[in-house]
Amino acid sequence: MKEILLACVGKPSAGKSSFLNAVSDATAKVGNYPFTTIKPNHGVSYVPVECPCKKYGKQDQCRPRYGRCVEGTRFVPIQMMDVAGLVPGASTGLGLGNQFLDDLRHANALIHVVDVSGTTDQNGKEAEGYDPINDINWLRLEIHTWITNNLLKRWSGIVRRHVAIKSNVVDTLQTQFSGYGSVASVVQKAMDKSGIKTPLETWDEETVKKVVDNFMDVRFPTVIALNKIDMPDSDKNITKIMRKYDQNKLVLTSALAENFLRKIRKQNYIKYIDGTDIVETKEDLPDSDLKPMDDKLKNRVEKVQDLVLFRYGSTGVQEVLGKAIELLGVSPVYPVKNVSTFSSTNSTKPGAFRDCILVWPGTTVRGFAKILHAEIDKYYLYAETVGNMRLSEEAVINNSNNVICYRTAIAISSKSSITNNDTNNNTPDKKSKK
């Protein structure tokens, strides 16, 4: 199964590297000058999803193998990438050129980090009163231009081949879009969204651009992270942007505030719950092992609380990840050995809901068996969910059936791969009882 990869994009100095550091284990270089990032930074982040441990009263027994679970919110690992800063004209070689656009080919969704304070211009240089709406517009235009130009350069040859072999439109376009990590279903969705029914050989340049526009929406769903919300001029820009763009794709963030809170939490000055406004100090918890803060540090914490946490409810960075996963439509699935205790077998750390795997929309029960392990699919007998309810092989996994136990004709060796092999405890080489 292809791992989920989110890419942070945007102009230099918008806060992309700070955002990556705030949501992952990466240590991306940060600076207030253009092109701090030259090569893509990679890290592992943890996206919040609902864990069934709370629904079934198993919070005390919930033991994630990877990530963590906090009061029924599961933090599941995903891959993150910080692409070097783009500037207007990157698709034609300006700035650091379009080599960094190529990095986007591998991403499933984009997080466009925008400096909403208006203190940096389109090239990432210090400025006053810059309108961040420009950044939202030109970045999409650069990616659109990059894809469109690649198509138009070869368009006459594409049309001739399309007519000669009597190919359908989706197959022809998929051949061209495959380099952007596309599959035929993505192209089909883009064509359905575009509403274009005319033969491909009659398309003009504007029609091609419309196809690319819809392809981008499907292939590169984008969350816009309005960063630096604690800066003086951010309020007026936020209001203006909220009026113009789809608010379901906008999230208010302060990556620097999140980094600060994570740092002093690690130093044991505070207890801080990610994605909330809850920050507790030694004064709040006098019997705890937290270290007392001096006046300078205390003032910094209070400033973050006043300008970010109490005002917006959180730093916003966890919400960005959740929104990206929502746009992709992926679902968390919890493979277990027992649908009553929700335990796994062959584990040195017993507990409930040990594993959580994110799957793509449309994944079926049998399809998930193949993802878990080839032998689970090979010796598959049946699958069941909570309440010992049998599941059809063709049932699509959703939030009502995402706790799954697989029964196989033989026991699957615990040495063969992940969690997935912990789903059965039948006697080797003997048929399971139904």
Structural description of this entry:
By secondary structure, the protein is of the alpha/beta class. It folds into three domains: 1-40 and 83-130 and 221-329, P-loop containing nucleotide triphosphate hydrolases (Rossmann fold, 3-Layer(aba) Sandwich); 154-218; 331-423, Roll (Ubiquitin-like (UB roll)), CATH 3.10.20.30. It is 33% helix and 16% strand. It contains 13 helices and 14 strands. The strands form three sheets. Strands 1, 2, 3, 4, 5, 6 and 7 form a seven-stranded mixed sheet that branches. The chain has a five-stranded mixed sheet with strand order 11-10-14-12-13. A hairpin with a 2-residue loop joins strand 3 and strand 4. Helix 5 (169-177) packs across helix 6 (184-194). It is flat and about 80 Å long. It starts with a strand and ends in a 26-residue tail after the last strand. GO terms for molecular function: ATP hydrolysis activity; GTP binding. This is OBG-type G domain-containing protein.
H/E series, N to C?
A: EHEHEEEHHHHHEHEHEEHHEEHHEEE
The SS-based structural class is: alpha/beta
- As a whole number of angstroms, the C-alpha radius of gyration is 25 Å
Mean pLDDT: 87
Portion in helices: 25-40%
Largest sheet: 7 strands, mixed
CATH-assigned homologous superfamily of the largest domain: P-loop containing nucleotide triphosphate hydrolases
* Individual helix count: 13
Q: End-to-end distance, in Å? A: 29 Å
Oligomerization status of the protein chains: single chain
- CATH topology type of the largest domain: Rossmann fold
Q: What is the CATH domain class of the largest domain?
A: Alpha Beta
In terms of DSSP E residues, the strand content is: 15-25%
Pfam families: MMR_HSR1 (PF01926), YGR210-like_G4 (PF08438)
Organism: Circinella minor
InterPro entries: Beta-grasp_dom_sf, G_OBG, GTP-bd, P-loop_NTPase, YGR210-like_G4
Protein name: OBG-type G domain-containing protein
